[in-house]
Amino acid sequence: MSFLRIEGGRNLSGRVSIAGAKNATLPILASGLLSGGLLRLENVPRLEDTAAMAGALRAVGASIEEVLPNVLEMRMEQPPRPLQEGEESLARNIRTGVLFLGPMLSRFGWAQACLPGGCRIGARPLDLHIWGLSKLGATIHIGEKHIEARGRLQGCDLRLPFPSVGASENLLMAAASARGTTRLRGVAREPEVVDLCRCLRAMGARLEGEGSAEIVVEGSDGEPLEGASHRLLPDRIETGSYALAVAATGGSLLLCDTPPRCDLAVFFEHLQRCGVAVEEEQEEGQQRGLRITREGGFSAVSLTTAPHPGFPTDLQAQFTAAMCFADATSDPVVVTESVFENRFMHLQELQRMGAAVTLEGCRAHLSPQGGLTGADVTASDLRASFSLVIAGLAARGTTTISALHHLDRGYERLEAKISSCGAQIERMPSAAPSRRRAKPSIAALSARPSEKKPGEHPWLPAC
Ligand code: UD1
What we know:
This protein is α+β, with helices and mostly antiparallel strands. It has helices at residues 22-31, 48-59, 88-92, 101-108, 127-135, 165-176, 191-202, 236-249, 265-273, 316-323, 346-352, 382-394, 405-408, 414-419, 442-445, and strands at residues 3-7, 12-17, 38-42, 63-68, 71-75, 110-114, 139-142, 146-150, 157-159, 181-185, 206-208, 214-218, 228-231, 251-256, 277-282, 288-294, 303-304, 333-336, 356-360, 363-367, 376-378, 398-402, 424-428. It has a four-stranded mixed β-sheet with strand order 21-22-1-23.
């Protein structure tokens, strides 16, 4: 039960190397189930989630080895075997275990996945995955612990009612080895989905349209795809998280090995409207770098999350935390979460640090006060954890953050990266201290308590 202790109030200055994208790595590892050869992946982040996905793949019969730092090699030569007692927990701990269904079923005619875990940020149903696989011809049985699917898949026209990232990925992989053509409309346009398509193409899959709302896949009719080598794209959420850390503390960070700026265009527009400078910097050796600088004060802006190319829901918590450090003269702002219905668990922890923030349904109302005060806080999910790191780095005094298993799922070498930029941050091995909270400010005291209206969710289809 280790915890982080942060002495806040220091500007950040230095450079941070961005790791490979977690959310590209997990589906691309699942895509290895389609290949009859060797899949070699470079720039794989060393994370709890990557290890959990590799463990779950080994449990169904894949061989996966880290042959060099951040380089994995995977083979799936024989038909998958059912998960045994004890192995199930491996697969259940990770939501992306459900991504086994599409590729396994389409190559082997049988698939099994555990009902998934992952961040508790909403109901997170799997109806779109199941609906799409059924349309492709699968017979699906949902048990208490497992989903089992059988059948020979036949390509068809599918229109997703919402561009679910996971469902798009699962159905793309299912289509890659199905019989005939699949036309997938309303598909997610996230860069990680595009990266999966690039990897599938390197494996010999025939598809076109990635990055748009329609992808057409010509299936291999049950034939395994070829071996391939693929370098994972850099993590845009890690990039945005460090950009927000320096926005909150002030200072200047050079972020290296970042994704193309257009992958975060809407996010950077918001950051620049706050008064934070975002500049591309060419380094020796042709490396791409993004310099993020905040000098002096900055102002708060409102945001609404949306599927790509909109503002990423995975940066909402970190942005909200940074907004607490906007000038006290800033107007109040509204943060609207339109992708997940329960993604505001960081608010009560920010309130402990003195934030004047209230929740009404899917909207958080925040009155910036120019800062927060250190307190003992608890992480509730992956991105919420980094929002507390941002709050701790910029707050006055000491902050401790417990429940670090969330953070370790998705941020590689966090303490090393951020302490090399001047932060005072340390992982303490023992149990977290008692829950000290900041003395509430007048604005925080006058804020109304959270009220979530049941069923209020702007887009979720009633399916
Ligand atoms: C992925 C990302 C996650 C990110 C999210 C949205 C990975 C490993 N995780 O999660 O970090 O926050 O995209 O960008 O890539 N939904 C349904 N039915 C379904 C599937 C989803 O109603 O069958 C709903 C979800 O409950 C949620 C919304 O669709 O409200 C978006 O979910 P989805 O895009 O599927 O996210 P994930 O793939 O789980």
